[in-house]
Amino acid sequence: MEKRVVFDNRWLPYLLVAPQLLVTIVFFFWPAGQAIYQSAFIPDPFGLKTQFVGLGNFEYLFSNQYYREAFLTTGVFSVLVTVSSMSFALWLAVLADRVIKGSGAYRTLLIWPYAVAPAIAGVLWLFMFNPFTGIIAWMLSQLGYAWNHNLDGGEAMALVVAASAWKQISYNFLFFLAGLQAIPKSVIEAAAIDGASFWRRFWTIVFPLLSPTTFFLLVVNVIYAFFDTFGVIHTITQGGPQQSTTILVYKVFADGFIGQDLGSSAAQSVVLLVLVTILTVVQFRFIERRVHY
């Protein structure tokens, strides 16, 4: 029999959801509305007055070569961060699910990086790969490879991808491990008794049963790569060299706060919002069909 909550006071439900509604309006709808409004204007160099230009900021953006290149950079960066962080997290979760002795300490150590802020994660990786003082850069030099992400765009991209993926692995690990522990062991044991190998059991039983968790993490990781990696990029490369690591969210910051081009920055925010919305809808519309709940 279904039990439903009944409130004696008709205003109580509205009071309970009011704080969340207030936070959503102040920190999401109000900034989004301001970005849409400012994207139709160009302020003068002194910020004293603005000029209405309609869609002029958007026309300028899509005719700008550097902005189009930022789209490609964002796509490559997002795919690499999402795939690498989810793959490593799934591998570690499978190992942690099989460990018996010391499993608690093993899982705790894997969770620690999640508590590290993106900017701190960027500084840690910057210290290790500093071309002059970094321990990893020194080890590579001993092997005959001169590492310098300040000059090489490919190395810079590899470094920000590694730092961003490392920061997100712990989050993915927690959900994958919870998903693995929720799978009935009797199903896996029955397949093992029938002679199925470990990999056959994983791809035909475990991985399909993990599809709801994998789909959820796919959406979360794409959004993370688009927005939450700003601190990593800012501390390691600041979008360089030659904008090789300038993703869309960092270009919003660079044009708005460094270049003081607020109209273009607002238009980029609107484009980014629409792009992430489209990606999320596509993921729910097409990829969710392959999820088995």
TrEMBL record:
> Which stretches are transmembrane?
12-30, 70-96, 108-136, 156-180, 201-227, 266-287
The answer to whether the entry has keyword 4Fe-4S is no
Where does the ABC transmembrane type-1 domain start and stop, copy by copy? Answer: 71-283
Q: How does it sit in the membrane?
A: Multi-pass membrane protein
Q: Does the keyword Cell wall biogenesis/degradation apply?
A: no
- Localization of this protein: Cell inner membrane; Cell membrane
Keywords tagged on the record: Cell inner membrane, Cell membrane, Membrane, Transmembrane, Transmembrane helix, Transport
Classify the source by domain of life.
Bacteria
**Role description:** Part of the ABC transporter complex UgpBAEC involved in sn-glycerol-3-phosphate (G3P) import. Probably responsible for the translocation of the substrate across the membrane.
> Which family would the database say this protein is a member of?
Belongs to the binding-protein-dependent transport system permease family.
User: Could you tell me what this protein is called?
Assistant: sn-glycerol-3-phosphate transport system permease protein UgpA
Q: Which organism is it from?
A: Hoeflea algicola
